[in-house]
Write a structure and sequence with these properties.
Elements (H helix, E strand, L loop, with lengths): L2 E9 L4 E9 L7 H19 L15 E2 L7 E2 L9
Antiparallel strand pairs: 1-2, 3-4
């Protein structure tokens, strides 16, 4: 892998955090599993740091949003809402 980047969008009004993981690879294999793992580790870390404040927090909507390369070429998840967290 040549790049991994985790970003967070904080929605204070709705008490949500959106985590997004971007992975780049120079090889021919995909990195969907690495990106999904990256976002889950980021969310698990946030959960661990905040569980004393709100032990009822939960994750939802974890999915691949965009993929370039491989057999499918450029693929975008048309069902993924930008506003979902």
């Amino acid at each position: 892998m040549s790049k991994v980047d985790i970003s967070f969008d904080i929605d204070i009004e709705n008490q949500r955090i959106r985590a997004q993981c971007y992975c780049k690879l120079s090889g021919k294999t995909g990195v969907e599993m690495e990106a999904l793992t990256g976002v889950n580790v980021a969310l698990l870390t946030l959960f661990d740091m905040c569980k004393a404040i709100d032990p009822a927090m939960h994750f939802e909507g974890i999915r691949v949003l965009d993929k370039k390369g491989g057999k499918t070429g450029h693929w975008q998840n048309n069902q993924a809402s930008i506003q979902s967290c």
